[in-house]
Design goal:
By secondary structure, the chain is α+β, with helices and mostly antiparallel strands. The protein contains 3 helices and 12 strands; from the N terminus they run H-H-E-E-E-E-E-E-E-E-E-E-E-E-H.
Length: 281
């Protein structure tokens, strides 16, 4: 131990005690203590820097975890809301379709049955669909099928709980029509394209104009009279030819209608369901 070290510690301790007593009894050292505050302030601030940095890092880490958790929750909620919005849009469109179909059924004099499309024939050379009504519902072969806008086709095959419908756009389909404006008759055949029908054997002198509405004539007894079928879209007269080339656009939405009407006419009647899908022995 260095010489006089104990005496120095003792003197310092006595000196500190004296300063504490003087500071407690008198205000002489207030100005000195105030001035010393300027000197020790940087050291004090420097001493708390590590603690401040630690607290800042801890708060940021906690905040980051909370933000990540909240982000996951909001993302999941947003996904659910998007699905609900898509479903609501689908339901709104379906509701609008049903309202249009209901309006159309009010304009049909015959008895009707609402049905829905369940499948579309993938064969590109045919235009056929499947519906969810069959022989158990009284559906019969040859039954007319409408949508909210016009004639869509006829039933060609019936099973107990489903049926196959041949649409008017099929190349094997033909329907007798007449011009709603003047009663001129023609035959509208399918072309295989959903947006086009062709009128065959129309004389060049026939009174048919672009924009004329074509309705079912009722001839042949297959389709009731007066249902909208198509609108004339083009007429082309070829020199030297006896017949004009007339095309028309179907009024029915063949590529998008989901809900349809099965028409029960007095002329056609009903076929017992068993005879529609079972062979008689």
């Amino acid at each position: 131990m260095p010489p006089f070290q104990g005496q120095r510690v003792g003197l310092i301790a006595v000196f500190c005690l004296v300063l504490m007593w003087v500071d407690n009894q008198y205000s002489w050292l207030d100005s000195v203590r105030y001035g010393v505050g300027y000197l020790i302030a940087p050291a004090r601030q420097t001493a708390v820097i590590p603690l401040s940095v630690a607290e800042w890092m801890s708060e940021n880490a906690t905040l980051r975890r909370e933000l990540l958790k909240e982000n996951k929750v909001l993302s999941a909620r947003n996904l659910v809301l998007e699905r609900k919005a898509q479903r609501m849009a689908s339901l709104e469109a379906e509701n609008m379709s049903l309202r249009e179909l209901l309006s159309a059924s009010d304009q049909v004099d015959d008895k009707v049955l609402v049905t829905s499309v369940t499948a579309v024939d993938p064969d590109p050379y045919t235009q056929q669909i499947l519906i969810d009504k069959g022989g158990s519902d009284g559906v019969f072969v040859g039954q007319p099928v409408l949508d909210a806008y016009g004639l869509l086709g006829q039933v060609i095959d019936v099973l107990p709980f489903s049926s196959r419908v041949l649409m008017i756009a099929d190349s094997n389909h033909a329907v007798p029509v007449q011009v709603n404006r003047n009663g001129v008759r023609a035959i509208a055949t399918g072309t295989g394209a959903l947006n086009e029908l062709e009128l065959i054997y129309v004389p060049n002198t026939a009174d048919i104009k672009v924009g004329d509405m074509l309705v079912s004539s009722g001839l042949g007894g297959r389709y009731p009279k007066g249902y909208p079928v198509a609108t004339v879209s083009s007429i082309r007269n070829t020199p030297g030819e006896s017949f004009a080339t007339v095309t028309a656009e179907p009024t029915a939405k063949l590529d998008r209608s989901r809900h349809l009407l099965l028409v029960f006419t007095d002329e056609a009647g009903r076929v017992p369901p068993e005879q529609l899908w079972r062979n008689e022995e």
